[in-house]
């Protein structure tokens, strides 16, 4: 009687394993496929953002050169670019 119960439990375990293994593989395949689509979408979005920032930077590059020159002039005049003396410096 005991061996008959063990055989039935083993048979049920084997059937459950045979049924669950393809389901798990299908689930993993579909999940990987969705993640791959998401990564493709993120790649396209990052390329679009890069193109937009390049366009904006290209539009303002001429005026920013003048603006950065004015900032450098004021920082030199104000003494912001001088190094502070540290302990031990003469």
3D architecture notes:
- 86% of the residues lie in helices and 0% in strands.
- The chain has 90 residues and is mainly alpha-helical.
- The protein has one domain (1-80).
- Keywords: Membrane, Transmembrane, Transmembrane helix.
- The chain crosses the membrane at residues 15-32.
The major β-sheet equals:
none
- Number of discrete helical segments: 1
Secondary-structure class: mainly alpha
- Provide mean pLDDT, rounded: 80
What is the CA-atom radius of gyration, in angstroms? 34 Å
- Taken in chain order, the helices and strands follow as H
The tally of structural domains comes to: 1
Relative strand content: under 5%
Distance between the termini: 97 Å
What is the general shape? elongated
Residue windows where pLDDT falls under 50 for at least 5 positions: none
Q: Classify the helix fraction into a percent range.
A: over 70%
E-strand count: 0
Transmembrane segments: 15-32
Keywords: Membrane, Transmembrane, Transmembrane helix
Summarize it:
This protein is an all-alpha fold. It has one domain (1-80). The protein contains 1 helix and no strands.
Secondary structure: elements and pairs:
Layout: H1 2-78
Brief descriptors of the model:
mainly alpha; 90 residues; membrane; 1 helix; transmembrane; single chain; 86% helix
């Amino acid at each position: 009687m005991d061996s008959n119960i063990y055989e039935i439990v083993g048979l049920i375990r084997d059937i459950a394993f045979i049924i669950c293994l393809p389901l798990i593989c299908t689930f993993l395949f579909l999940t990987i496929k969705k993640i791959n689509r998401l990564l493709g979408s993120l790649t396209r979005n990052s390329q679009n953002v890069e193109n937009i920032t390049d366009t904006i930077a290209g539009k303002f590059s001429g005026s920013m050169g003048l603006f950065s020159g004015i900032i450098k002039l004021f920082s030199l005049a104000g003494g912001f670019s001088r190094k502070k003396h540290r302990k031990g410096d003469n």
